[in-house]
Amino acid sequence: QRFRVTAAPLGPDAVSGILVCLEDITPLYEAGQMRRDFVANVSHELRTPLTALMGFIDTLQGPARDDAAARARFLGVMAREAGRMNRLVGDLLSLSRVEFSERQKPEDRIKLSDVLRASRAMLAPEAGQDAVHLDLGAGEGQSDIVLGEADQLRQVFNNLIENALKYGGAESPVEVRLSLTDQDPYLRSPAVRVDVRDHGPGIAAHHIPRLTERFYRVDEHRSRELGGTGLGLAIVKHIVQRHRGRLAITSEPGAGACFSVIIPTAGAAPRS
Ligand code: ADP
């Protein structure tokens, strides 16, 4: 805990008394510490690809100048590193945008089954037509409508489905299931629930509460190899909060992971 002590004389001379004020500034200190950690993390994440790029530029200007095969190989690696920086900057912008807008609740009526179809269609060219199995079940009716912002909701499901494809192993398809609940016990309102489930190695229980922290990764090397920025789930959490919803993560190690997004239905969401 951190305290700030301030003292001021009560009258023109210190004899009449001194007012001493003891203030608990722990939350302020913690917020400052989080900001410092974040800046340090961003700098580290940017410096890694930047250092690689600078090294390759040196090599291309020197030893590899006349070696066409080496040049082509190095340019490929440079393009990958530049892509990594680009994704990182894109995710940082998304995160700052959603944090900035968090208090302002989105008001468009969005049908979640449409958002899920769009996410699958977007990912299909790279992942394959059968990589994602959609079960829209009970959500085909009117009531899978939430108050939201379509782009942000698409980003939530793109991130979750991409993660399930990346970390879930390619053997069995990712299952995306939409269902409706009359009363979500935590939100205390009718809600739409979307489960994104994979059948990969899953996640050990002690990692689960930390997954939505910025730059938290279970396996940093693997995340980097797969092109991850470590920000995807932080973005998901903030968008879901902005939509008055909640994110639940469950996993049975060895049998896969399930990320559930639960958002109040449009009729149920309190207007801000
Ligand atoms: P990244 O860019 O590293 O994928 P995310 O914020 O999206 O960052 O995810 C954080 C970490 O959570 C990942 O690095 C990975 O270790 C873990 N993770 C996310 N989704 C899954 C999943 N479906 N199965 C196993 N681990 C996962």
Automatic annotation (TrEMBL):
Enzyme class of the recorded protein, top EC level: transferase
EC number(s) per entry: 2.7.13.3
UniProt-recorded name of the protein: histidine kinase
Cellular compartment(s): Cell membrane
A GO cellular-component term linked to this record: plasma membrane
All copies of domain Histidine kinase, residue ranges: 41-267
Keyword list, A-Z: ATP-binding, Cell membrane, Kinase, Membrane, Nucleotide-binding, Phosphoprotein, Transferase, Two-component regulatory system
Keyword Membrane: yes
Superkingdom assignment: Bacteria
Record bears the keyword ATP-binding: yes
A molecular function (GO) term: ATP binding
Regions annotated as coiled coil: none
Catalysed reactions listed for this entry: ATP + protein L-histidine = ADP + protein N-phospho-L-histidine
Residues of the full protein shown: 82 to 353 of 353
Biological process annotations from GO: cellular response to phosphate starvation
